[in-house]
Design brief:
It comes from Spirosoma endophyticum. The chain has helices at about 5-20, 95, 100-105, 125-140, 145-165, 175-190, 205-215, 220-230, 235-250, 255-260, 270-280, 285-290; strands at about 20-25, 40-55, 55-60, 65-70, 75-90, 120. The protein is of the alpha+beta class. It is globular and about 55 Å long. The two termini are about 20 Å apart.
Length: about 290
């Protein structure tokens, strides 16, 4: 990205931050917009052939897909065909959460790191979804006093249409204290990612760190998380750090020492040992596979 492109990306990011929302059309000539993905959620309807990199996974897609991007999960997209068309909308978490019902939608499998961010769309679904995006684009430039609420309804409608294609049992239900504290822990864990700056290393790295942040005893946190998820707190933390480490190894040119520091390790050796223990590979070998 050259200086002019960086300036345009900064201007576009500032514009969307101020408005809280932006919808636009994608075509093969103009493409999309450059922006800081850490600032916005994204929903896009894409027709073409792409390779999506999402955390440490990759998806090859063709025809039409519906994509859900979470600002806390690293992702990128490679266009591998001459066709690139569709629609996209970016929105901040605060914009959508002005609607009380929307918070649970952001916790759906569509935006979760272990969920499915890409859905294959048939022609009938494409037409219906394209119509919603077109309404959002028209509405954002209108003078209607309640257009933000109407746009939120359109976003929610797209999410609900996508959730119909997801198993209903994946939708979280906050039934008791253990579920609530686990939900807050998982959200706090995700809020630390993606790591985009070497000089801002991971702050919360242990169960004790999270317990202090949540103002609960570490034993209570551990028992709640284990009861709800079946896995200990340390396992969730380790898996998320490993996932981020793989993404950084595959999608950045940072040195392994830089990645180790950014992930909160005092020495690269500690990071190497941690990574090998949980993956069976050393970081250098994972990076070599992505070259």
């Amino acid at each position: 990205m050259n200086t002019q492109e960086r300036s345009q990306a900064a201007d576009f990011t500032t514009e969307v931050k101020l408005q809280g929302f932006k919808a636009y059309e994608i075509d093969s000539k103009s493409g999309g917009h450059s922006y800081n993905r850490k600032d916005f959620y994204k929903i896009s309807l894409n027709t073409g052939k792409y390779i999506f990199h999402y955390a440490d996974r990759s998806f090859e897609t063709d025809e039409t897909i519906l994509f859900f991007g979470n600002p806390r999960i690293p992702y990128s997209c490679e266009l591998v065909s001459s066709i690139n068309e569709g629609y996209a909308c970016l929105f901040t978490e605060d914009f959508l959460k002005l609607s009380d019902r929307s918070e649970s939608l952001l916790q759906s499998p569509l935006f979760k790191i272990g969920g499915t961010p890409i859905l294959q769309i048939n022609w009938e679904q494409k037409a219906a979804l394209a119509s919603i995006f077109q309404k959002m684009i028209a509405e954002q430039d209108a003078d209607y006093a309640f257009k933000d609420e109407l746009i939120r309804n359109y976003i929610n409608l797209i999410i609900h249409e996508a959730l119909k294609l997801q198993p209903s049992e994946n939708t979280p239900e906050h039934k008791n204290a253990a579920v609530r504290i686990t939900s807050v822990f998982l959200e706090l864990l995700e809020r630390q990612f993606p790591i985009e700056r070497i000089d801002r290393p991971l702050e919360l790295k242990t169960a004790q760190d999270f317990a202090r942040q949540l103002s609960v005893h570490v034993n209570h946190l551990n028992s709640s998380v284990k009861e709800v998820t079946g896995k200990p707190t340390t396992a969730h933390i380790a898996e998320r750090i490993i996932s981020e480490a793989k993404a950084l190894l595959q999608h950045t040119d940072w040195t392994i020492a830089d990645i180790a520091y950014a992930l909160g390790f005092a020495y690269p050796t500690y990071f190497n040992n941690f990574f090998k223990k949980r993956t069976g590979h050393i970081p250098k070998s994972v990076r070599a596979l992505s070259l």
